[in-house]
Amino acid sequence: MIPKGFQFSGVRCGLKNRKNDIGIIVCDEIYPAAGVFTTNQFRASCVDYSRQSLSLGTLKSVLVNSGNANCATGSQGERNTVRMAELAAEAFSIEGPIAVASTGIIGQQLDMTKVEKGIHMATKHLSLDPKPFMEAILTTDLVEKWSAVSNINPTSVTNPKNPNGFTAGEASVYGVCKGSGMIAPNMATMLGFIVTDLDLSHLDTDSLLKSCCDQSFNSLTVDGDTSTNDMVILIASGKSGVKPDLSLAATMIQAVCVDLAKQVARDGEGATKLIEVRVKHATDSKKIARTIADSPLVKTAMFGCDPNWGRIIAAAGRSGVPFDVNCVRLELEMNGDTYLLFEKGQPASFDPSRVSAALKADEIIIHLDCGGASESTIYTCDFGYGYVRINAEYHT
């Protein structure tokens, strides 16, 4: 179920060699909206433009291009961002704030002739189907990423492989995103667009979105690199008439965000496995978990199905967070089976060949208990040969 109050379009104008590369979301009216943005100092002009567009907490449209980041392109790049919004306003007769997002190669000027052509083409394909828009935001992604929940079953996320399995309800949240490499959110290393027909007019949507992102996209890493362009935008039409309390709204939006974050990790460039790093610690479990998740040695060990627990505890030890090493317990979980590798300052007795075979699973959970009740989860992936190949050839 697509939330009421939105239309989508996606077309190919030639910024990329193939597939759609211009996409737009058009709201029926000006709706409440919120956004979170990258903290990279080399921000693309679209980031600053979109932040300004959201200054009053509303949006009428979101325009996206892929294939060109329009970042580090000087005053001409800034003018191109503004012109993109102007072209969309003219073509779609939009009266209201427009957010602009770009993704792709850094340091190249946009071909505005192609962009203008694409925006005008998009007017002819506006519909309730978000799939063309989904394709238009992708770069090195191997798959489209979307997720949805309803207020009837707010924690049941639809399976991307089973789009007909959505549970119908009075109100829904629907999200799409792109992201595969240059992923280390410091909000937010990817593009994400979430629409809902919930009425959120009584809630602080900025705080709501930030909280949901902290538990999802800000708990995600592929390669430790925070990008220059990235943003997550939430728009709420209120068309369902359902006015949820903060708890229900957060549950629904966070369920979509977490599912999308996992999809990004699973689709990491060259990745073969989704890895969840779950750490318990008294004060800063998230910092320990992120250090482990960012470790190339841990990620390559997971790719090679090597139960090299030394890499995991070494990463935890250099996180800068103090803990008693004699109280640490490390387990790996695959396909519902748990394997103890280390506890009380020394290796546990386990069969390396058996654990190595289990590590062939496409989902791995690393459990590290450093003492304390606080637990954090970071979503990441393994590092395979494909990551080097993709990024070595990305520009050339």
Top CATH class of the largest domain: Alpha Beta
Task: Output the number of helix runs.
Answer: 11
Major beta-sheet overview: 8 strands, mixed
Rg for CA atoms: 21 Å
Overall CATH architecture of the largest domain: 4-Layer Sandwich
Walk me through what this model shows.
The protein is α+β, with helices and mostly antiparallel strands. The chain has two domains: 261 residues, L-amino peptidase D-ALA esterase/amidase (4-Layer Sandwich); 119 residues, ArgJ beta chain, C-terminal domain (Ubiquitin-like (UB roll), Roll). Helix content is 30%, strand content 26%. The chain contains eleven helices and 14 strands. Strands 1, 2, 3, 4, 5, 6, 7 and 8 form an eight-stranded mixed β-sheet that branches. Strands 12-11-10-13-9-14 form a six-stranded mixed β-sheet. Helix 2 runs parallel beside helix 3, helix 5 crosses helix 6 and helix 7 packs across helix 9. The longest helix has 21 residues. The radius of gyration is 21 Å and the shape is globular. About 3% of the residues have low confidence.
What structural keywords apply?
single chain; 396 residues; alpha+beta; L-amino peptidase D-ALA esterase/amidase; Ubiquitin-like (UB roll); 2 domains; eight-stranded mixed beta sheet; six-stranded mixed beta sheet; 26% strand
Which helices and strands occur, and which strands form pairs?
Elements: E1 6-11, E2 22-37, H1 45-53, E3 58-68, H2 74-92, E4 98-105, H3 112-122, H4 131-136, E5 145-150, E6 172-178, E7 191-196, H5 205-214, E8 231-236, H6 246-266, E9 274-281, H7 285-294, H8 296-303, H9 309-317, E10 329-334, E11 337-343, E12 346-347, H10 352-358, E13 363-369, E14 374-381, H11 385-392
Parallel strand pairs: 3-4, 7-8, 9-13
Antiparallel strand pairs: 1-2, 2-3, 2-8, 5-6, 6-7, 9-14, 10-11, 10-13, 11-12
